[in-house]
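I keep forgetting this: the sequence line spells out the residues, with the fold written below as integer tokens. I include a record here:
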Amino acid sequence: MHVQTIVSESVKAPDRPRRTPDEIDAEIIAAIGKRPGVNQKEPVERLVMGADVVGYHLRKLVREDKIVRERKGRTRVYHPVKK
């Protein structure tokens, strides 16, 4: 009986350029500017990032007064700052 050994090759995730925190902030602000009143889920889907990453940046942008958070029922929605 002959036993064949299968050697697994390491599988590497496709290379994606890493975004800086400032680039992520700019992308989130642009996404909210295009569709004011979005909840956290929409930027997560649009920017292909984890909910925890987007949530962190949303909270940071609210603290820095770059976007506004508003409650609508149980949901938080985000708007650009009125100038």
Q: What stands out?
A: The chain has one domain: 21-80. The longest strand covers residues 67-72. The chain has three helices and two strands.
